[in-house]
Amino acid sequence: MAAGNAHIGKPAPDFQATAVVEGAFKEVKLSDYRGKYVVLFFYPLDFTFVCPTEIIAFSEHAEDFRKLGCEVLGVSVDSQFTHLAWINTPRKEGGLGPLNIPLLADVSRNLSHDYGVLKKDEGIAYSLSRWLEARQ
Where is each Thioredoxin domain found (predicted)? Predict the structure, then answer.
């Protein structure tokens, strides 16, 4: 796993990425969540068989997280177009269906690298969650 720039007790690396939010593309930055906690979870690829369970569980509990002042963001190295296709695919056909959380596109792999989750030999992110406090 790459060392990255995210370290306990240090400011989290800022980022900007295109996300799928409620079925539309939107630019998302860590600074958008200032004053909140953020669960930033990474997963390897869209349309895989293990990841949907975790993503759907996070989505189903998004409101519980929000009540605690926490937002949940999912990230993979797929494009926003692939994210949208996976969301638009019904769950019974291997898709995610509608989500209550954003999925961020990390095509450049910079976000995965900065957070130390990039599996360089395969160009994908490890499955990992980072809990952040977006201060100030």
Answer: 6-136
